[in-house]
Amino acid sequence: MCGIFGGYNAPINKKNMQRAAEALHHRGPDGSSYHSEGEHFLASVRLAITGEPGMNQPFISNDGRVKIVANGEVYNWQEIRRELGAKNYLFKTNCDLEILPSAWQEWGVSMFAKLNGMFSIAILEDKQLTLARDACGQKPLYITQRGEALYFASEIRVFPELGFPLEFSTDFVGQYLGLRYVPEPNTLIRDVHILPAGHYLQIGTLGVPNIQRWWTPPKVSENRSILPYHESVTQLGQHVDESVRLACPRDQPVTLYLSSGIDSALLLESMQKTGAQIRALTASFGQNSDEGLGAQSLAESYGVEHHHVGVGHENLSRLEKVVAQMEVPVGDSLILAFDALASRASGLGSRVAMGGEGPDELFQGYSFQKLFYYAEKSPPLLRHAVGLGVKYSPDFLLEVFSNFPTALGKQGKAKITQWLLDYQHLSNWEKGAGLRMLFTPSEIDELLIDNQWKDPEMASHEDIIEAHHQRQFNDWLPDWSIIRQDRNTMAHSLEYRMPFLDVNLMRYSGQLPMNYKIRAGKTKWLWRELAKQRLGSRIGSIAKKPFYMPVESLTNSRDFQELVGDLLSYDRVKRRGLFCPKAVESLVKNVDSKEFLSVKKVMALVILELWCIQSKF
């Protein structure tokens, strides 16, 4: 595990390279290395998961033609190494990444599809540079072109150290407000992009980058011809166990991020089979969303050491630092919880942590996926009748049927009602993403001074459900879910692994019909059946509980009031020039209602302003 950076057709300044390596020190505190050829250079910093010597990068092919630096882990490296060894390729270490130069010479760009793991890779061969990123974007790779030169880095903070000041771009502020992140490949920094997940870039002597997709996310699938139920559960369990076996280190303690839900429970059960030395951490909020006691009970049932990590208003004092280590704004206070978990794991001496991301995307686990599916499949009259029923029902009744860990409030109820009643007239984007948007398009237009909301581009697809399923893998997963883990764990020199994003498990999920994912009002149906079989019906039947920090409980704290009063003051908002000061003032006043949507909107603006300050914009 490490961080990488480099340049193509790029003048080399050794002092700048050293400063760039220092900027990535947290991703690689155990050493740095450099390689240059003319005006091309590769560099890396290393986080040593194992103590084996001889692992400094770049890795070089036996004939010296291919040089590679990489960030991440290739879990199936032993299988690939045996295959290459049979073809007379030679290896000197037991490092997973040493296979890459030989694999590149044998298979070229087809190599990427053979790698099961998380990675960003830079390959220099015969004056051509190839960059690649793993299927789900677990490892980041930013690119910027300056004239004929192209630079790349694991983090944006490298570019100023190489001599390129960052400039704020307001083009995608509207998308940030709606989604709480900017969908890749775009960023809020001018001329800086992220290589999309599952893509590779090549640039040669002509100096024109060519970007191609090498991975296509699994389909959500409407096919109903499938193996019998029992065989499907068995196959799913085999994929789960194999994915965990590959990703779980057994030569050192590993920290598990444990909730009281089925994903991390299945992960714990499967990790134990490997003989791993496990300790579990759970973020505890002290509110209805607190899963600490359930997670503790689960850990104790497996004889696993368990630690609570308290998260509350006192963590707000770290928000400035956490926003800085995130590098790009993600408008969610949960970044504080992920920072607290990573800090504790690192403090306990861990170098590797694991978590259960992935099943919700693969098996339709989110409530907004279920509601979208039923809304799309329902006749308009039924959908309208349900919308009216929600509108005129008592507020408490909606809470009874909601599994959200806090009251939806009047705003939440109005959001669902309007979405159902207007569904027929919504854009394809709003149909699938409207329920998970923070600010609505009309609210964004009222808030922004210059720009207006524009629906993010979507690949054309006859099936709107399939189109949004694909979109979740293209940006929601890497830019919302994964990035919060990668930035916060790496800030504490901690590697984070997500075994359920195993490529074979993902491919298997695409073979399953939709009624094995959503059935009788239940999400993740087959996944739950596996959980019932392995963990018992009580855990397998637990409703999906969003990982939620109760921000509405923070509003009375002095930390929150000072933060909002300073960063969203009328004068500061006016100086920034992005938003209408009166509109922001109204949002801040709405916080007094203590409805979670009001507080989340204000926190998204606070995080954006903090990010602007940290970035010196």
Short summary of the structure?
This protein has 617 residues and is an alpha+beta fold. The protein folds into four domains: 2-213, Glutamine Phosphoribosylpyrophosphate, subunit 1, domain 1; 229-362 and 467-540, HUPs (Rossmann fold, 3-Layer(aba) Sandwich); 367-465, no CATH class; 551-614, no CATH class.
Chain-wise SSE layout:
Elements: E1 2-8, H1 14-23, E2 32-37, E3 40-46, E4 59-60, E5 66-74, H2 77-85, H3 100-107, H4 111-114, E6 117-125, E7 128-133, E8 142-146, E9 149-153, H5 158-161, H6 173-179, E10 193-194, E11 199-203, E12 210-213, H7 229-247, E13 253-257, H8 262-273, E14 277-284, H9 292-301, E15 305-310, H10 319-326, H11 335-347, E16 352-354, H12 359-362, H13 367-377, H14 380-392, H15 395-401, H16 409-422, H17 428-433, H18 441-447, H19 464-491, E17 495-497, H20 503-511, H21 525-535, H22 537-540, H23 558-567, H24 570-576, H25 581-590, H26 596-614
Parallel strand pairs: 13-14, 13-16, 14-15, 16-17
Antiparallel strand pairs: 1-3, 1-9, 2-3, 4-5, 5-6, 6-7, 7-11, 8-9, 8-10, 11-12
Helix pairs in contact: 7-8, 7-20, 7-21, 8-21, 10-26, 11-19, 14-16, 24-25, 25-26
